Aminotransferase class I/classII large domain-containing protein
Amino acid sequence: MGRQSSDEPIMLSSIALLQERFKRLQRVKEMREERELLKMFPVTERIKATIIDHDHHDQDLGFPIAPSQTQKNSLLFQPESRRKDVVETPFSMNSWMAIGGDRGEGFNCVEEKWGLQCVATPEQTVYTTKVARNENLAKLQAGYLFPERARALSTLEGYSGYGAEQVEDNIHRLLMQKLRAAIASTFYKGLGIEETDVFVSDGAKCDITRLQILFGSNVTMAVQDPSYPAYVDSSVIMGQTGQFQKDVEKFGNIEYMRCNPENRFFPDLSSTAKTDIIFFCSPNNPTGATATREQLTQLVQFAKRNGSIIVYDSAYAMYISDDSPRSIFEIPGAKEVAIETSSFSKYAGFTGVRLGWTAVPKDLLYSDGFPVAKDFNRIFCTCFNGASNICQAGGLACLSPEGLSAMQDVIGFYKENTQIIVDTFNSLGFKVYGGKNAPYVWVHFPGRSSWDVFAEILEKTHVVTTPGSGFGPGGEGFIRVSAFGHRENVLEACRRFKQLYK
Ligand SMILES: Cc1ncc(COP(=O)(O)O)c(C=O)c1O
């Protein structure tokens, strides 16, 4: 048994495959050797089993069974259920590993050792999305050539190769692993996102396109309207959309989820069409609006009902100063329906340095039960050679106690800029949105075209803003004013705004 077999998808409905897997496990003398292999299988089946003796549970394993699995299987470890009682219980490959780890002394199944007869009631208990796996990824064979080779050559001190970042063999050795661990513990502590779920990249924008490659051209998608243009444009490039419809300023086959002051910038999900993918950004660029816990709970439930995958962009999460969630994974159930992408660009001024990450939980599965993370790993190793070591070292420094405090200072500075801009437009009588948890101020010019206002401001004050309609038809009548700038420039711009609109 080797790495090869861990690369096979386990089809949840296929009891024959499960039996085959059990047979092979039977041949492994020391089950602990297979721990990495077994960690790959989030498969839960119902089986009939007999407990014949006490079991050591996961003590020998060196890694804990996920709490939910432990809980699910606790029945197996209760004294009353020992001896010859036949119990029917959900049973996962992970716990099989745990039980197998004591060389079969502790557990046996009805009739035959190692569970060859454990076929009583196969029943799928894991949640899968309804998004079909990209069939082109399924065509690929083993891992991408160069990471495979790098794995063989890499050493602690020297060559780590490129593109092999997600290979677990070197997990404690590479700088990348340290950064993954630091990201997981800084941004996802207690949320069930592990370092192995984190893909370190050269930025969230690049990951958005990689995610589109992952999903392929046969998916449908929804976006907030207005939204960061990379979602729609990458969707168009991938061939997921129809033509641009000039009359409505929308691409065909994209669900535009209108977010405006009337719905407090959160879409009306009761009238939102079901799509495979939902791009959602909070705090939002351009509106600066932040979704509440209740709203994100609705979104996760909506995705779950429809079998959709949410791509959650949290590039501005550190700007949140109220109790709005900073990560979608704060919402129960999100790990089964969401991917999160984020960035050092807005926290540490890494816009040009280029460093970001995407978290893809192991619980996120395509409709056939195949883990999305495995395909994303393949995309990463094929389309990307890793963030440079210099950028990674910079990212690690950002996540040190001093770095985190420096990032808070930077964010605090931009938030002061934001307040200056908000106060300026408020004093001029404009309705102003955003600004609170985001470095963007969304200013309403009712009845006017965004482009006209943009041109007016540019020509008369020589200040560059962004026309709201550039972010989708829902942005018409607004302009976005960014707080990313030197203080004296922001103050000067505000002085000119006051002159223009007094
Ligand atoms: C919502 C959002 N996501 C992602 C990005 C890009 O992030 P990165 O610099 O990490 O590619 C931006 C940059 O403007 C953004 O506004």
Summary: Residues 203-206, 228, 281, 285, 313, 315, 343, 345, 351, 356 surround pyridoxal-5'-phosphate (CB under 6 Å). The CA atoms of residues 64 and 323 lie 31 Å apart.
